[in-house]
Fold this protein.
Amino acid sequence: MRRTWFFSISLFIGAFACNVSAADWSLRDVVTALFKADRRTPIDFSNAELKFLDLSGLDFKRARLTGANLHGSDLTGAILSNCDLQNAILDRATLVGVDFSSSNLEGALIRLPFSAGSPGFDSSASPKFPGANLRQARLVGRFDGGNFRGAKLDGANLGPYGDWTQNTLARRSVIVSGDFSGASLVNANLSEAILTFVNFKDADLRGVNLTNANLVGADFSGANLANANVNGADFEGTNLTTANGLDQLVGRERAINWPSARRKR
């Protein structure tokens, strides 16, 4: 009888301990775990509740954050390169100067973050996603100067958020002077996005939805735009001189300022 009682108590304590370590992380827990962590054996924060924590400046050392909830957390200057953030929630997180290079953000939610995007922004404070996997991710908000070089955004959704009762600019993705050179955006949704002076050199934009997007001054040289939907998109001053697939554009007759775009003669 005593042995049965002891075994039951042990199971209860063990289950409680597992629950705390798996989900209920305090700031002190996170900092301590990362301080002790080794990049060869990354910390597992899968499905952890990390909401509204000040995680600024931390090096996550290739941590696994699959399904983690980072809603509203301050990640200013954090190093999340080569981390697994598949299906993670980063809504309204502070992403000033965050390094997501080569991370797996497939299916992640990054809605309305604070990333210091504004007129006269400092590009060094922009979030960095070079080489990251953002397939099927949901991004909306300001990412001015964001570095997406060589990133995979196939099927990603950067389209409008919410409904028409909200402020028009607040519900659109804004990526002024962003860099998508060499990125893959096959079948991605960039409808209504403000993409002025964005670098799309050599990007794969087949089937991308650019409906009503602002493409003023964007550079599409070497990009593949086959079957892209450009209905209502503004092409004023865009560079299309070496772009491919222009004869396969959808809705080109309804594009704005198409004659002013630089194209092959």
